[in-house]
Specification:
The radius of gyration is 16 Å and the shape is globular. It has 228 residues and is α/β, with parallel strands linked by helices. The protein has ten helices and eight strands. The longest helix has 17 residues. It has an eight-stranded parallel β-barrel, surrounded by seven helices. The chain has a single domain, classed as TIM Barrel.
């Protein structure tokens, strides 16, 4: 793999603006950071998608948001409706949470139908979907089955976590998810990538996106190391 440029690394980031305490002013400042650093996307709370899309217009930064966040327990119809609203507001990427309880119950048809419903809505609109597993609650057998499902329904990414469970992305999970996902499904790490060195480590595994709140600090460190 060739050495990445600063621009390459910036386009790995989904700048996370999901903390429940963030004010509208703080969301706006986060959007400004994302635009300044030219990241891949801003993952923002659903009510703010329309404003995010407006403020990011004219940049190459996508507006993204969460679906069924943070536990995936919404009915599928609600996830679909939430997706339709987000897409109408200007979101071009959706980070949906699987129904964790159904995964643990082994109800794989339900899980597949739930993910497929959101993927189909998004793809009809030309948008992409990242499927959040919440690995902190799962065994490897669950993660492998979810990777297979995401491949079958043509999800765009598999994602480790919401960032709000006990643990986030681990190197072991990222390797497992890359190994057990088909080539057309990318891997996103969320929770735990907080330094330039860790970013390079997960990139070497095959991670193409990282959800982070420390975007500015990591990219500032990258700029200092790369001399860019």
């Amino acid at each position: 793999m060739p050495a990445p440029t600063l621009a390459d690394l910036a386009k790995m980031f989904d700048h996370s603006l999901l903390q429940p305490v963030l004010t509208d002013a703080e969301l706006d400042r986060g959007l400004a950071v994302a635009a300044e650093y030219d990241v891949a996307s801003v993952c923002i709370k659903p009510y703010a998608v329309r404003r995010a899309a407006k403020l990011l217009a004219g940049t190459t930064v996508a507006a993204s948001t969460t679906i069924g966040f943070p536990h995936g327990g919404h009915r599928t119809a609600v996830k679909v409706f939430e997706s339709e609203l987000a897409l109408a507001d200007g979101a071009t990427e959706l980070d949906m949470v699987v129904n964790v309880g159904k995964v643990l119950s082994g109800e794989w048809n339900y899980v597949a139908d739930d993910v497929r419903a959101v993927v189909e809505v998004a793809h009809r609109a030309g948008a992409k979907v990242k499927v959040i597993f919440e690995n902190a609650y799962l065994k490897d057998e669950h993660k492998k089955a979810l990777c297979a499902i995401c491949g079958e329904v043509r999800a765009d990414w598999v994602k480790t976590s919401t960032g709000y469970a006990e643990t986030g992305a681990t190197v072991e999970d990222l390797r497992l998810m890359r190994e057990h996902s088909p080539a057309w499904v990318q891997v996103k790490a969320a929770g735990g990538v907080r330094t330039y060195e860790k970013l390079l480590e997960v990139r070497a595994i095959g991670v193409t996106r990282v959800g982070a709140t420390a975007t500015k600090a990591i990219l500032d460190e990258a700029k200092a190391k790369l001399g860019g």
